[in-house]
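BUG: 3D viewer hangs when loading the predicted structure for this chain

Environment: internal workstation, default settings.
Expected: structure renders.
Actual: progress bar stalls at 90%.

Input used:
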Amino acid sequence: MNLLAWLGLAAALLLLSSAGLWLGRRRVRRAARAAIHQFRARLSRYQLQQRRIAKATLAADPVVLAAVLHHAQEHGLSEGDVRRRVDHYIDEIVPQLNVLSYYKIGYNLAKLVLNLLYRVTVDYQDEAALGRIPKKDVVVYVMNHRSNVDYVVVAYVLAYGAHVSYAVGEWARVWPLEYVFKSFGSYFIRRGFREPLYHAVLERYVHLITKNGVTQGFFPEGRLARDGRLGPAKLGLLDYICRTLLDPEFTRDIWFVPVAMNFDRVLEDRALIRELVDERDRPGRLWQAWTVVTYVSRNLARLLTGRLKRYGRAAINFGTPLSLRHWLRATPGVLELPKAQRLAELQQLAQELMGRIGAIIPVTPVPLAAAALLSFDQTVIPKAALLERMDQLRDRLHDVNAKVVRGDARILDVWDRARRMLHLRRLAVEDGDSLVVLPGGRPLLQFYANSIAHLVPIRGPRTPFHKEHETDPGLPRLRPRST
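Structure tokens produced before the viewer hung:
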């Protein structure tokens, strides 16, 4: 075959491969559009653009450029070195949403896992108010943080109607989670990293996605609650989002939607409370990894042998949205204040949001039973007295308009659901007509009771029912959270 024939064959193969790539991309785009229509997903054009465009926009941002010059002068570094550091931060933060990854893989995996582990309950305190949020406005879901499963629960529940871009902590920056979360449109945050240069890049990225109408979700507490209580809000991300209103090109409103979650079983519960029971008992990363592998292996074996049992309820409740522009009308000029004064004022907004989240925390059977058991402060409790106490607590919860899951069910049925989990976890066992709280399980009961302690403080008579049921002051307890 002569040279001309070889060139012709090479050209033909090149054309065929180009046509194949074009058809493949076209097929992928068509499948992505079909997924968006199927889920009626609320996606901004920004989320569908190429990642390099967002990175270039962020790198050329005037605030970021000014931060580069300031950092270089302050630390005696060359501008090129600082620019390379900024490029690293940008590459770390900016995700690339893959619609098929999110809706075809992520959604179906979340559906499978959640329905294997929990019975998911969804409620709306004010569904009409959620429906009245203008389509052009930006929605930010503000959530309490009970478990790493929170991301999965919210994404699964909101899949039909909205795609949520999460702020994810550094724990997810390991292979392969990093690529998975980035393909889902989530961005990473270095918590506790105080460098002003990094925060300039992060703030401008949050400004960029908010300005472009990206639906977001973040956890104001910033970390999982070690003692099970609803924690105070951190103000960093909230400040970044709010200051988008200073952009003259941004004419829309920002709506904060409170989201509250609770579980009959938090997967990480024992790991979370371990350092609160004994601060010296803090496992290393290798031990944590081994624990995860062991947990997954055991449950996979239970699934294959048909012995896997659900962990009870995973409940999620959506509250009444709050308009940022409406809130600012009562406190004008807040966003223009110097940072220290501004954060002091935004603390009021954070407290309002956390108050709304706390008011709608779902009360599932296990937290209700745990609160009732601990209210006696005894090791052995008559079952009739426990059921009466659970009924009393449920009435108090109804009085404060709390969302009690299966609130209209017989209290015996509610206890029966909780009992299975308490027995499975070796927290409390039945002994004739009494319940015995196992000493080793007491801190875990406290963890679950704490999730609703702000709704119904654990109070009750401290006198024992019988002489042999004396209060034991030596029972293990969670240490108070340090402030």
